[in-house]
Amino acid sequence: MQHRELAAFYPAIQVAYTKLVTITTDDLLEANRMRSATGAPWPFLVDPGRIVQKDLDIQEYTDPHHDPMIPYTFVLEPKLVIYKVYNGYWFWGRPSPEDLRHDLRAVFQKCRPDWDLATPGLRENYAADKTLHYPYRPRPSAPASTA
């Protein structure tokens, strides 16, 4: 169900410069079946060797026969910094599209200096070097002195 809700939410995700990825312990055939059945257009990464599960220590130990991962959802900031983690072992622990909308809004407010165009100095920056406006560029360096 969560993937179907995310698939319906995906057009908004695309417009907002945001990416999704699903990591599964299923094999490629099963992952493609799930991706197709849910209409998920984002990448599914398969990890039947359970490398991610072991590296993050997220084995769902209550099902040793299938050995799945606990269904975590990570909301990441730029440079893959973890902003929030949802533990989806129980259904109600999984984020809704509205939960993700709120989290992503907070992440963007934090990392986008031009989030609020009324912020003092942004208009002047736009008229100058635009380093505080998307696409963000480093400030021009001052010329080296020749003393």
Structure in words:
The structure is a single chain. With 147 residues, the chain is of the alpha+beta class. The protein folds into two domains: 2-111, Glutaredoxin (3-Layer(aba) Sandwich); 116-147, no CATH class. Helix content is 35%, strand content 13%. The chain has helices at residues 2-15, 28-38, 51-56, 97-111, 122-127; strands at residues 22-24, 44-46, 72-77, 81-87. Strands 1-2 form a two-stranded parallel sheet. The protein is elongated, with a radius of gyration of 20 Å. The model has no long low-confidence stretch (mean pLDDT 92).
Could you outline the blueprint of secondary structure elements for this entry?
Blueprint: H1 2-15, E1 22-24, H2 28-38, E2 44-46, H3 51-56, E3 72-77, E4 81-87, H4 97-111, H5 122-127
Give a summary of the structure in a few sentences.
The protein is an alpha+beta fold and 147 residues long. The protein is 35% helix and 13% strand.
